[in-house]
Specification:
Distance between the termini: 17 Å
Number of strands: 0
Number of domains: 1
C-alpha cells in the first residue's frame, strides 16, 4: 500500500470515525437525559440495550459475510447472485425475528422477573428492536463491501440523532422510563434501516441470480460464531449484573460499561474499513497494519486518560448529576483497558475471518463459554460484598476474558503456521 493509498485509507476510516463519533456523541447525550429515570429504571434501560445486542448474535456474521461477497462481486453474474442472496437472507432474518419475538413474548414473565423489568412494554420494545438488529447488518454489509462509507456512516448518524431526539421527547419531556427509552431506540433503528434500504436499493431490486444455502452457510456460520462470541463477551456481563444485584444499584456498573462502549464506538469503524480491503485481496497486510496502528493509538490514548482521570468520563456523560455516578470511578480504568483489548482483538479476528482463516472460531466459542463459566464461578462470592467491590470482581473477570481474546487472536494471526489450505484460500481471494 502506497503513501497515497495509506492516506486514502485513513480518509475513509476518518469519515467512519467521525460518523461513529457523531453517533456516539448523540448516544452519550442520551444518558444524561435517561439518567433522569428512576434509578431502577435506568439500570433496566442499560440492561435492555445489552439484551438488544445479544438478540443480534444470529446476525453477528452477516455484515462481514455480505461485505465479503459484495467486495468480490465484480462480474454481472456475481452481482446477480448477490441480489438473490440478499433477498433470501432478508426474508430468513425476518422469519427468525418473528420466532424470537413470539418466544420472548411467551417467556416475558420469566424474563421480566430475571432482569427486574417492571413494565413488560420495555421488553416488547426490545424484542421489536430484534428486527432491526437482524436486518441492519445485512444492508450495512453491502454498503461496507461496496466501500460506500458515506452511506454506512449516515446510517450510524441517523441512528444516533434519532435516538437522542426521541429520548428528549419521550423521556425528558414526557417523563418516560425504560420502556420509553427502548421505544426511542426502536424508532431510531427503524430510521437507520429505512435509509440503508434506500441506499442499497440498486442491489436488492436488481435482477436475481442463483442462491444456494449450503455454500453460503459454510461461510456465514464460522463468521457468526466468531463474531457472536465477541458480542457475547462484550454484553453478557451487564445482563449478569442486572440479574444478581438490587435494581437500584446496577446503574453504577452500567455507567462503567457506557465508558467502555464509547471507546469501542470510536475505534470499531477502522476495522470496518479494513475488512473489504482484505477480502478484496489487495493491500491486505498494509490494511491490517494501518488498522492496528489507528486503533491502538486512538484507543490507548482514551484508556490512558480514563486511567489517570477516571472521574472525567463520568462527569462528561452524567454532567447533570455526576455525584450519583462517581462511585463507579474505580470501574472506569478496568473497562477502558478491557474494551481496548476487545477492540484490538476484533481487528485481528476481522482480519482472520476476511481471509477465511476459520481455525480460530472454535477457540472463540470456548472463550465465550469460559467467560460465562467465570461469571458463574464468581457469582457465589458476591454475596455480602460491598456493591462497587462486587462490581470490580465482575469487571476483573471481563478483563481476563478480553485479555485472553486478544492473546488468542494474536496467536492465530502471527504465531500459527498457515495450513496449505488456508494459503490456497488466500491466494484465490
Amino acid at each position: 500500500m502506497s503513501a497515497d493509498s495509506g492516506r486514502h485509507f485513513f480518509k475513509q476510516a476518518g469519515w467512519l470515525v467521525i460518523a461513529n463519533l457523531g453517533c456516539g456523541l448523540f448516544m452519550y447525550a442520551v444518558h444524561p437525559l435517561a439518567a433522569k429515570m428512576e434509578a431502577a429504571e435506568y439500570g433496566v434501560f442499560l440492561t435492555l440495550l445489552k439484551l438488544f445486542l445479544v438478540l443480534g448474535i444470529p446476525a453477528a456474521g452477516l455484515q462481514s459475510v455480505f461485505a465479503l461477497q459484495t467486495a468480490r462481486a465484480q462480474t454481472a453474474g456475481a452481482q446477480a447472485d448477490l441480489t438473490a442472496t440478499l433477498r433470501a437472507v432478508l426474508w430468513a432474518m425476518g422469519g427468525l425475528w418473528l420466532v424470537l419475538f413470539v418466544a420472548g413474548w411467551a417467556a416475558s414473565d420469566v424474563i421480566c422477573a430475571t432482569f427486574k423489568i417492571s413494565n413488560p412494554n420495555a421488553l416488547l420494545a426490545t424484542l421489536g428492536l430484534g428486527l432491526t438488529t437482524l436486518l441492519l447488518p445485512v444492508l450495512r454489509g453491502v454498503l461496507q463491501g461496496r466501500q460506500d462509507f458515506a452511506g454506512l456512516g449516515w446510517t450510524l448518524v441517523i441512528d444516533g440523532i434519532g435516538r437522542f431526539t426521541m429520548i428528549v421527547v419521550l423521556v425528558a419531556w414526557l417523563g418516560g422510563q425504560a420502556a420509553s427509552g427502548m421505544a426511542a431506540s426502536l424508532i431510531s433503528q427503524l430510521g437507520a434501516l429505512l435509509l440503508a434500504a434506500w441506499v442499497t436499493r440498486t442491489v436488492w431490486q436488481a435482477e436475481r441470480g442463483a442462491f444456494q444455502w449450503r455454500p453460503w452457510l459454510a461461510r456465514v456460520v464460522p463468521l457468526t460464531l466468531g463474531l457472536g462470541a465477541v458480542t457475547f463477551i462484550s454484553s453478557v456481563d451487564t445482563l449478569f449484573v442486572q440479574s444478581q444485584f438490587p435494581k437500584e444499584l446496577t446503574r453504577l456498573y452500567g455507567a462503567g460499561v457506557i465508558v467502555g462502549f464509547g471507546l469501542s464506538q470510536f475505534t470499531m469503524p477502522i476495522a470496518n474499513v479494513m475488512f473489504p480491503k482484505i477480502a478484496g485481496g489487495t493491500g491486505a497486510d498494509a490494511a491490517l497494519r494501518h488498522t492496528l496502528l489507528g486503533t491502538a493509538a486512538l484507543g490507548g490514548a482514551v484508556a490512558a486518560v480514563c486511567t489517570v482521570m477516571p472521574t472525567l468520563p463520568l462527569r462528561v456523560v452524567y454532567f447533570r448529576n455526576p455525584t450519583e455516578f462517581l462511585p463507579a470511578a474505580p470501574l472506569v480504568p478496568w473497562f477502558a483497558w478491557s474494551i481496548l483489548g476487545l477492540v484490538l482483538a476484533n481487528v485481528l479476528i476481522q482480519n482472520l475471518l476476511a481471509r477465511e482463516r476459520f481455525a480460530i472460531v472454535p477457540w472463540l466459542v470456548i472463550l465465550a463459554a469460559g467467560f460465562a463459566g467465570g461469571l458463574a464461578w464468581v457469582q457465589p462470592k458476591l454475596a455480602g460484598v460491598e456493591p462497587v467491590a462486587a462490581f470490580m470482581m465482575v469487571a476483573r473477570v471481563l478483563s481476563i476474558a478480553c485479555g485472553a481474546l486478544l492473546l488468542t487472536a494474536a496467536w492465530f494471526t502471527w504465531g500459527q503456521t498457515d495450513s496449505p489450505k488456508s494459503k490456497v484460500q488466500e491466494s484465490e481471494a
